[in-house]
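Weekly puzzle thread! Below is a chain. First person to post its structure in token form gets bragging rights.
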Amino acid sequence: MGTLKIRHDDPTQKMRMQAGLYAPIFYSVPFKIFRDEWIPNIKLHDLRNRKKLCLVLDLDHTLLHTKQVQKLSSEEIIRLCNSSQNDDISRWESVDGVTHLTKLRPFVRTFLEEASKLFDLYIYTNGSRYYAKRMARLLDPDCVYFGSRIIGMEDSTKKGRKRLDVVPVKKSGVLILDDSGEVWPKNRSNLVVIKKYDYFAPENPNGNGLLHDEGTDESESSGPLNCALRLLQDVHRMYFESNNHLFDVKELLGILLKNNGTYEEKLPELVTGKSWRKSRKRLRVEDECSSRDVTKRSKMLISSL
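Winning reply:
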């Protein structure tokens, strides 16, 4: 295993000292330790300097819904042809020649635009990297949101599971938005679970979905994706407006959400001044946004710290 020599005249010394990463003169650091421990710290330090955090986004049923055309019934195809939401439906072919339809979730373009101002955005899917890049072109045709920050199943360290060990940012500065908590067994404290988006008929006949069959779709102004954005904005605001620069986003999620994922009406910690406990349960965004004023409470919390 290679080593990394850090010299006394290293021009990055000041930055590393500020990030708590200072190493003694000529101290030999195994390269794997540097890669696994130091780089995520440096990445988070860079994000903080830009007043940003990291947001990892799932694709299917979170930002969009994809289905093979051959699995659509003739009745469903007729309804899709008569739908008023066809502007957000794209037809494309996979590398094996199978034709698919992808429907973007309502509010997704505004979500990405607003979230990118506060977070470095990553795509992380259990689908292939080819599929991830194909969907990135639909979501981000001008390549302004994701760049090369795209992670597919080929990059995962455990088959069928997602882990933040493939995201090169310290976990205390990383949030996740996904419709499934089961795929994140190691990082549930960083996770906000959003309602599953099923536009086409589900594979499971007992499943929910088929929004177009009902002639409806999620609300742009009060749907789950809008609600998720407001929550993420509050976490970002609390993180940077507080005098405490050692915040962990997991703790802030635990403050803003109850264990069942709805916004708290009261925050006892504000009264008692006691520190909060980290929530290790999945945090879920309600089907529709709460009408409670979360921003007001987050500002109250910040002023008390």
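Puzzle host: Confirmed. Bonus trivia for everyone else. Confidence is low (pLDDT under 50) at residues 1-12, 15-29, 259-282, 290-302.
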